[in-house]
Design a protein that fits this description.
It is a single chain. The strands form two sheets. This protein has a twelve-stranded mixed β-sheet. The protein is globular, with a radius of gyration of 18 Å. The chain has 225 residues and is mainly β. Strand 9 and strand 10 form a beta hairpin.
Length: 225
């Protein structure tokens, strides 16, 4: 479970493949919904226009039969390709060249080079990379929660060998930002990522995206570079 929590946002990004496409995908089962594409295009356009993003989120993990296995609060800081994820006693930091994964309870940091291939994933893709040639998507309707109108989109992978079979995305219609994402795995597990607070263009220094060992006395360093 600890590893699942640590990589929660990265896993979320992995759901959506590698490189965002602007064309509508097609599969034997049909065409994607142009209305859903328009919503996702707006989310991507809005995020790309921002200099930085600070967001608080809740990761809820449900086992089969709707049993709640875990729930964690966290924060994510994004500035261009740089990011920092903080969840409980764990941190994932990247300056787009080097990445650091720190686990507080064992006071250990793992250092590795950033993978710049098309298959690499970053938290920024949670906000932008919802759709590519490997998915079909459709707008299923709108719902209202806490005074907000949410546009509901269902995505299904065209590759049926993937471990998940469906992803539900809720977009805040007014702000054109991601509100919630729920991933359904074939084994019955469900992962819900809910954005509880979204701050566009927040003050984020470049120092946020590097790991300073002097601030972690006695830290054990595992360098995989």
């Amino acid at each position: 479970m600890k590893k699942t929590v640590l990589t929660g946002l990265i896993m979320c990004g992995m759901v959506f493949g590698s490189v965002a496409q602007t064309r509508t995908p097609a599969a034997a089962s049909g065409q994607s919904d142009p209305k859903a594409k328009a919503v996702l295009d707006n989310v991507s356009k809005k995020f790309k226009s921002l200099k930085s993003v600070i967001a608080n989120f809740i990761l809820k993990i449900e086992g089969a039969n709707n049993s709640v296995s875990d729930s964690k609060k966290g924060s994510v800081y994004v500035k261009g390709p740089k990011y920092k994820v903080v969840m409980g006693e764990q941190e994932i930091i990247s300056d787009n060249q080097t990445s650091w994964t720190y686990v507080k309870d064992v006071n250990e940091v793992t250092i590795s080079n950033v993978d710049h291939s098309n298959n690499s994933m970053t938290p920024a893709k949670i906000f932008t990379n919802f759709y590519d040639k490997d998915f079909l998507y459709r707008l299923t309707g709108e719902s209202t929660e806490k005074g907000k109108v949410l546009q509901n989109i269902e995505l299904t992978p065209t590759d049926k060998s993937k471990t998940f079979f469906k992803v539900l995305v809720d977009v805040d219609k007014k702000t054109q930002t991601l509100a919630r994402m729920k991933v359904f795995e074939k084994n019955g597990n469900k992962y819900t990522y809910e954005i509880s607070n979204f701050t566009p263009n927040g003050a984020v220094s470049d120092a946020t995206f590097t790991f300073d060992p002097s601030k972690y006395p006695g830290v054990e360093v595992v360098d995989l570079r």
